[in-house]
Amino acid sequence: MVKPMSQLIVTPRVYEAVLTILNNVAQAQCPLDKAYAQHFFNFDYASQDHAVITQITGDMVRKLNLYSFITGNTITHITSNPAVLFYAWSKIEQQTIPSFIELTQQEIDNVEQLIDTAKHNQSLMDGCPAWLNTLGENELADSWPQERSALALAAKRFIRANLLKTNTVELQKTLEKEHITTRLISDCVTALEITSNSSLFKSLAFKNGLFEQQDVGSQLIIEALDVKPGMRVIDACSGAGGKTLGLAAYMKGKGRLLAMDIEEHKLAALKQRAKRAGADNIETRLITSSKTIKRLKESADRLLLDVPCSGLGVLKRNPDAKWHSDMSESLPTLRHLQQDILTRYSKMLKVDGIMVYATCSILPSENELQVSAFLKANPNYKLINETTISPAQSGFDGFYFASLQRISA
Ligand SMILES: C[S@@+](CC[C@H](N)C(=O)[O-])C[C@H]1O[C@@H](n2cnc3c(N)ncnc32)[C@H](O)[C@@H]1O
Fold it and tell me: What is the rounded CA–CA span in Å between residue 215 and residue 243?
């Protein structure tokens, strides 16, 4: 069972908010982050209530199949009996039962009996759907149960200090003045863990570009590229620039950093974020055809291929992904795309240059097996090292990254 952070105060307004957001995710198939964004755009809450809403909704979305088993409602109709749902949540998360919910003795007995039954099925207690359990067992064998349990926990919040403007020690002091408390992370020079419930994005420190929210694994991928000021660097699947901005900070504004993606709106968001971060050596380029890539042949000292993947390493952060698809169609397509990107995009690297292939997955079929297949077909690259960040062992999100060097044309 998850140990609660503290006893949460569930007011009728919090209760209604959780049900609305949950309905949007479970019934309308809205991604959790969008459901939060929509709700919090329309309604204002005190920061304490905001935190309670996201914690309870997250607890429920992480284990929708468990709540479905206990309430007797399908996942899409999980909110049909809200009092039973909240009672079950209080019991599972060891929280105080909201004072205003009313249940019959029979409903209470039923829930308690079903929780006792569920405790004999650890996969159900971990909120793991059958398709994911089979996939995890096939790919990770004995290490899967531990990873499965780790992926069922609430995600911790981490930020990356923007080295263009500050460092972790200085940032920690600045944030304290805004009542945001943090902890230094020994494994990573840019990371702080947020230890208070404070809202980050309303802080002055965020508006001034002193940090970005980012998991430690992502920050370690940035570090692995070992970029230096003056280099020519390509981030070929940059998205909205989570890692591009970190790379820019290590480059100290010197050299050329090209951020590329196939989605224009992501590159537009990157430009906004770069402005706030004070990162002015970033150029964005939309990939419109294979020519965009061919024109950059042998041009990069460093190349990041942060490829599209199943995202199964970051289920703590995006638990809704477990319920929206069983990935039986998307996973083979993704693996094919990953190998295609490795094969074609690696040609942008100069001889002696280093590229990092990265995913936010812990499945070997998206990670080490992709890299070994690439190396077999391309003996002009060599593996320098590879790392899997295990959610079970690290407490962070799950990632994989491999550094490869091009040894000849
Ligand atoms: C894992 S995400 C990247 C996240 C990003 N690097 C970050 O740190 O925030 C993968 C990205 O690859 C992009 N993508 C998908 N197919 C692509 C392709 N063929 N070439 C380049 N980028 C692609 C997606 O739009 C998505 O933004």
Answer: 11
Outline which parts of the chain fall under CATH 3.30.70.1170: 158-213
Whether domain 216-406 has CATH 3.40.50.450: the reply is: no
| Ligand 1 atom closest to 337 (CA) | 19
Write down the pLDDT at residue 4.
Answer: 45
The boundaries of every CATH 3.40.50.150 domain in the chain are 216-406
- pTM, whole model, 2 decimals? 0.95
Nearest CA residue ID for atom 7, ligand 1 = 242
Class of domain 158-213: alpha beta
Any idea which residues carry the catalytic annotation? 360
ipTM of the prediction: 0.99
Query: Best substitution site from 262, 264, 346 to test ligand 1's pocket, by max atoms within 8 Å of Cβ?
Result: 262
33 labeled part of a ligand binding site? no
Question: Closest Cα to atom 4, ligand 1: which residue?
Answer: 239
Distance between terminal CA atoms of the chain?
Answer: 54
Q: Which residues line ligand 1 (CB under 6 A)?
A: 218, 236-240, 242-243, 261-263, 266, 287, 306, 308, 341
203-242 per-position pLDDT tens digit:
999 999 999 999 999 999 999 999 999 999 999 999 999 9
Q: Rounded CA gap, 300 and 137, in Å?
A: 39
What is the mean predicted confidence (pLDDT) over 76-82?
97
| Mutation probe of ligand 1 site: the residue of 216, 218, 234, 237 with most atoms within 8 A of C-beta | 237
322-379 residue pLDDT tens: 998 899 999 999 999 999 999 999 999 999 999 999 999 999 999 999 999 999 999 9
Give the mean pLDDT of 298-323.
Answer: 97
Ligand 1 atom nearest the C-alpha of 358 is: 1
